[in-house]
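Subject line: Sequence and fold of a protein, written as structure tokens
Enclosed: The protein record, placed directly beneath this head.
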Amino acid sequence: MQRISAGPAVRVLLSLLALWGMAWPRLCPAQETTDAIRFGVYPYKSPKSVVEVFGPLAVRIEKRLGKKVQLVSAPDSDTFLKKSQAGEYDLALPAITVYYKIQPAGYTVIAKGVPSFWGGVIVRQDSGIKTIEQCRGKKVAAIGEYSYAGYMFFKDLLDEKKIDSTKDLDIHFLGKLDTIIYGVLNKKYDVGVIRLDTLDMKDFAPIKDQFSIVARSAEIPQFPFVVKSGMDQRTIAAIREVLTSLSPDKPEDLEILKSLQIKKIVGATKADYDPFYEVIKNNDYYKHH
């Protein structure tokens, strides 16, 4: 029987289907394997962007392990949290607040990107909004309730000003940085809450000057790379080696690092995140969810 090859459009579609954890069509039976490493990425970007950013890294890990690495995510932060708590990911890159919530499931930190980053409240330069108080009554686009950079720090600032985030603002949790940035740029939203270094990426650098920053968060460590309890130490060591060996001196590695918005990846442990836990543990949302 003649083998059918998938064209570029079909391959992209299959990648996006697989990203959300859906079954691959029978067109690619070789991809159906029970011993694949499921690499779960927190859905802070659009599906297309997650594939573009993390696909090359997944390929690197796959080559090193000699085992299929399946890049997966979830349609929203709640689903990602539930899947992580159920142990559905073997290797994962969760938002930091999600990491604290999935520790009981047995995930262990093995690496993190550096340097740290900041969350920020952005508006159009011509919006006239210059303070947190002026956000009252405005239409706000944020990442999600579990994201410190993309909402939680902003809510803390609102609380300090006695502004009720549910009554005094029209907040929309969009989950994707690019959607928020373009939404504010195109005046669909008055205010955006994002991780600020996103504006330095090549897709947004040309429009960066059209935004003003109203407020910044505390310094935030990069999302941790974590592995599920029970993964053998040899596999963990190999994955950590792939991550930490990325060098900005190599053009192909530099592209991966830039897309991840970091300069390098270093080995890490839970202790690296304990100081940040002290920053957020008294946040009302974190305490009650």
The chain has two domains: 8-116+221-288, 119-216. DSSP finds ten helices and eleven strands in the chain.
